[in-house]
């Protein structure tokens, strides 16, 4: 099975572990508190939120709001664009059932998979010989402290240890984020491995690349939090602990409920997530560029639910921070529907996806794309076959900066080729609605010629409630991940 093969260099050649995250200053904490509003507690971040944040590192709006701990779901509702995504109760029940199946009999199947995929020559764990410490304690702080103690004791003792739903913490812009991986395994050599149990299937050793990529980013967040605990162990005992840069992904095999697993390399996700979390500790720079008095306070009434602040004020505050919208945001961010509406209103090509945005180069709006497609170069005009209509006289003129851009030239060339093909086929003169530039603009970059309110991302969405857009976003996200979790890392998804 050529899946998740480990092509890592030898230990001596591996890059050093990322440096500890810098801690925010008192001034930054005060500034973030002002952005939330007086008396508003910060919204805690979980692994899914941190992984989604790392997936879109260019969005300054999300970096600031997450760094400040603003409740984006409540903010989106107050703006009139509430988030409409979430996991179904059926999916939750199926996931819980499969996890219970994997961890049955004191985790015998799980430990067997860990040894088979990541044993590294260690003796197989014998039934009844795997330690499973009790991690129960009062409150999240108590559970986190109990988990850290259990990890330290298991590392010192040696042997196999399974920690079921441990609680670990990660400081995010001055606020502790409590994270709960499905399991953490301590190896006999003292190494720690993150285990993620997912209910999507591996069929013939292959799984959905987008889902595996999301699981890899989530596991990277857990690994970063474990590195913090490993640093505490080193400081207290002097023993260095290795948090493995692979995690074990456990999924149902084929169409049965039998678990199978593969090791996934998460070095790229570790670096990306660490870099993005570092950006969160420097949100003071982003906040310093806001207009004076900017705040995202909803001014809730005494019932704690009714928003009293006018939507116009909230919109002005939100729009004062730049966003980097892409269709994949719809499955990861509560403000995605608001950002999509604003991107469509502005005719931004980002609403069509990152791939389209990259192909269009300096063309930033749909109007610029249409203008570039309708504008003929001298060579195109001279070579236009008889019967092919010229561009519409009332077409908007393109910006001089983009007239000779490669993307504009490609659009014009596509328009010319289509006109030649139609003329050869005997279609004759085209009507205004079927001008070559217009049609080429629609085909190039994912139907960019459509009106911003009727982009390709929303055509099927009218029938499926946005599922087509979410699927396109997942595909774009999987492509953006590259070989690290779409090639070797997710070759379980070949």
Topology at a glance:
Layout: H1 26-36, H2 47-55, H3 60-68, H4 72-78, H5 89-102, H6 104-118, H7 139-157, E1 161-164, E2 168-172, E3 175-179, E4 183-186, E5 192-197, H8 209-237, E6 246-252, E7 259-265, H9 267-280, H10 283-288, H11 311-319, H12 336-345, H13 354-359, H14 366-374, H15 378-382, H16 406-424, H17 436-443, H18 456-459, H19 461-464, H20 467-481, H21 483-486
Parallel strand pairs: 5-6
Antiparallel strand pairs: 1-4, 2-3, 4-5, 6-7
Task: Write a compact overview of the structure shown.
This protein has about 500 residues and is an alpha+beta fold. The chain has 21 helices and 7 strands.
Keywords:
alpha+beta, 494 residues, disordered N terminus, globular, 5-stranded mixed beta sheet
